[in-house]
């Protein structure tokens, strides 16, 4: 009598249990997941990347296309969120627990510092942008390939958006914005900015640094979800947008992202690779902040490519940081802030700017949502593994999360990148829940061959 064990659908590499999927492993054809692409996430991706000139102004509220989309979809998102959260066996990430307290705090902080009306007009829009984008991605149906289909669509859209950057160099002006201004008659100042004698392209984005940021994210995402020729076409498009923006922080972040992908590829049998790397990096950061008399000066001088911008960012942290320390709980609100006459109003750090608007608590909660989305692992002990495409996507999203956290000290994310912070976090939290929902390895179908023959 022979004993046969027939598992259900298994996707486990027993030869190297600590290995992550190889970059050259088959992750499914490019068009295989298009039929699985959810409509709402796809519409949000397109709306976020469209030019800023396409907006409506109702009172003091600017209704951009993604905001209109999220407002219309809000009842559906609310129903999906409640249904998902009350589903038996729902596996929440840390970000799921933090997203609603963050939304409440963002509104409360502005209401305390500037009044209820300012919170309704300004803070509610920022909450809708970030939390709404998170929920759109978090509530994707648990269908095989849906998350990968969304990520591939997003990577392709980012590549196209990045490719609009070189057009500015070709025409010697902000071509997309110039067309938008001609259609809307906004009469904005569209004189090109230059750095080191090179024009800083914008494409369809609000600022050159935003074009550089989405190009950086697109390059990492494309390497994670595409294979073969489509991968390199998308990466080349993203790199074209990255360098056309002439923005040092996204360029450095992209190099770091490529290095992390290379590190992952070279250590397939080292399951604790990210823990070891995180402990090493955290130890170095701890030493810098405890031993160096001016840790931020050290970071800006050694981890930015332009000494002039590093000096300016340091001044911003010193001046604006003192305002935050004077109002640590609720911040100073959304409007202009006290500074020297020669200083512009821009604050080149999303973490510092968030602390100014919503207090240190609000800034910390944003970080908890972004980083906490990675709290659930992609591999759960005792459960079947996610398909290779989902695993590769999860690694790419983890690297993008790190880059957002890193860039956040020298870059302020607003506009399209503010939406994308929520979108990437929601998509990674979705993958973590998907991994926890995989069938248990104990659920095996045991049969006896002799019994079948009887």
UniProtKB/TrEMBL annotation:
It comes from the Bacteria. The chain crosses the membrane at residues 62-82, 94-112, 119-137, 149-167, 208-226, 232-262, 274-291, 311-330, 350-373, 393-414. This is O-Antigen ligase. Residues 233-366 form the O-antigen ligase-related domain. One of its GO terms (cellular component) is membrane. Its main location: membrane. InterPro entries: O-antigen_ligase-rel_domated, WaaL-like. Keywords: Ligase, Membrane, Transmembrane, Transmembrane helix. It is a multi-pass membrane protein. It comes from Methylocapsa palsarum. GO terms for molecular function: ligase activity. The keyword Transmembrane applies. PANTHER family: LIPOPOLYSACCHARIDE BIOSYNTHESIS PROTEIN PA4999-RELATED, TEICHURONIC ACID BIOSYNTHESIS PROTEIN TUAE. The keyword Cell inner membrane does not apply. It is found in: Membrane.
């Amino acid at each position: 009598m022979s004993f046969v064990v027939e598992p259900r659908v298994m996707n486990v590499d027993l030869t190297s249990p600590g290995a992550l999927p190889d970059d050259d492993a088959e992750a499914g054809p490019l068009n295989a997941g298009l039929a699985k692409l959810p409509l709402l996430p796809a519409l949000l991706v397109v709306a976020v990347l469209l030019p800023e000139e396409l907006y409506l102004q109702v009172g003091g509220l600017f209704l951009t296309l993604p905001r209109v989309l999220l407002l219309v979809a809000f009842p559906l998102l609310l129903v999906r969120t409640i249904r998902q959260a009350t589903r038996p066996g729902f596996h929440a990430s840390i970000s799921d627990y933090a997203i609603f307290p963050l939304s409440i705090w963002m509104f409360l902080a502005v209401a305390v510092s500037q009044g209820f009306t300012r919170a309704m007009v300004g803070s509610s829009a920022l909450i809708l942008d970030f939390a709404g984008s998170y929920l759109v991605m978090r509530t994707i149906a648990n269908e095989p390939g849906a998350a990968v289909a969304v990520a591939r669509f997003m990577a392709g859209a980012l590549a196209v958006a990045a490719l609009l950057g070189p057009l500015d160099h070709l025409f010697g002006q902000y071509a997309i914005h110039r067309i938008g201004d001609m259609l809307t008659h906004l009469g904005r100042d569209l004189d090109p900015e230059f750095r080191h004698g090179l024009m800083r392209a914008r494409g369809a984005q609000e600022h050159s640094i935003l074009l550089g940021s989405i190009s950086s994210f697109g390059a990492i995402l494309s390497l994670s979800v595409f294979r073969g020729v489509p991968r390199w076409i998308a990466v080349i498009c993203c790199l074209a947008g990255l360098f056309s923006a002439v923005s040092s922080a996204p360029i450095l972040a992209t190099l770091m992202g490529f290095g992390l992908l290379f590190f992952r590829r070279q250590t397939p049998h080292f399951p604790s690779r990210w823990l070891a790397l995180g402990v090493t990096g955290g130890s170095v950061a701890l030493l810098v902040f405890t031993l160096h008399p001016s840790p931020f000066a050290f970071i800006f001088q050694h981890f930015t490519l332009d000494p002039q911008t590093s000096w300016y960012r340091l001044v911003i942290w010193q001046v604006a940081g003192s305002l935050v320390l004077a109002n640590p709980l609720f911040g100073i609100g959304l409007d202009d802030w006290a500074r020297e006459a020669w200083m512009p109003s821009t604050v080149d750090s999303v973490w510092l700017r968030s602390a100014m608007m919503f207090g240190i608590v609000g800034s910390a909660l944003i970080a908890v949502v972004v980083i906490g989305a990675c709290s659930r692992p992609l591999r759960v002990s005792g459960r079947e593994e996610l398909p290779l495409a989902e695993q590769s996507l999860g690694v790419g999203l983890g690297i993008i999360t790190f880059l957002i956290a890193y860039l956040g000290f020298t870059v302020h994310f607003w506009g399209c990148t503010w939406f994308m912070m929520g979108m990437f976090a929601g998509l990674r939290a979705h993958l973590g829940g998907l991994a926890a929902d995989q069938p248990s390895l104990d659920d095996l179908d045991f049969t006896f061959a002799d019994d079948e023959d009887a």
